[in-house]
Amino acid sequence: MIKPFKVTKTVVEPEGNIGVHFIATKSASSETNRRGAMSIQAYLSVSADSDIDQEVYNYLKEEWL
Amino acid sequence: MNKVIELCVSGENSKMTYAHEEQPDELYTQLIAVFPWVKKEQYLSISTPTHHEILQEDIITCCLPKSVSRVFFGENIVLSARKFCMGSAKSYIRAYYKYDGDSPSWLPSGCTLMFYTENVEEYGRPFPSAATTFSDFYFSGDPATVEEHFNLPEKRGDHTTLYGVTREGDTTRRVKQYCYDESNVGSGWVAVYNFLNDGS
Predict the structure, then answer these.
(1) Which residues of A touch B93 (CB under 8 A)?
(2) How many angstroms separate the CA of residue A61 from the nearest CA in chain B?
(3) What is the ipTM for the molecules in this complex?
């Protein structure tokens, strides 16, 4: 299975949530109409009992994917 | 009329592929009706729907940019394409790799097996589990030899003809004839293979 993101680091936040650093990549078109890869690095705070992959995917799928 | 870069014939089924700015909006309209998350600007090419003999539904194929393929599959990837199953609304990615093994027994003599594929599930997207039961292999060879070996009708492009087989276990489930009437972005399989093989 492939994922359109990679979790690069997780940290426990002071209040107990999980901080998730991740990189996501997708195909995109440039101003010259050339197709290529576009990546973002981002941080997401999720509850300690959550499925981290699912939370990241849910975050990305609305606007990014 | 949009320019076709490739005609693929598999028995009674066929598909045409369009690349870059020649990708027809009508095909994306069909695709987005089933897969609302599809964005035209993410793909290099799109095919017309064609019946898949194993999955038993129509498939539309869209190629992804090489840079994206590398992120997903690593530096050894040759190409990747997203396969959209129009009946079930499932999808998967086909990853293409250079073939380095011995010639398999099903390959006609004198032919060169260039690429093999893996069908891969994507996180968060419905996947047709039957896609794990088969692999596709792509090769070049003398058209008359290939047609005779697989009992195919004579179908050839004016520029070149290349071939694919779909193998499920020890069985060849279909043979595909890829016809190119001119040199274009789709017809360069042999050049890609030679470059990957020995840098020539």
Answers:
(1) 2
(2) 8
(3) 0.87
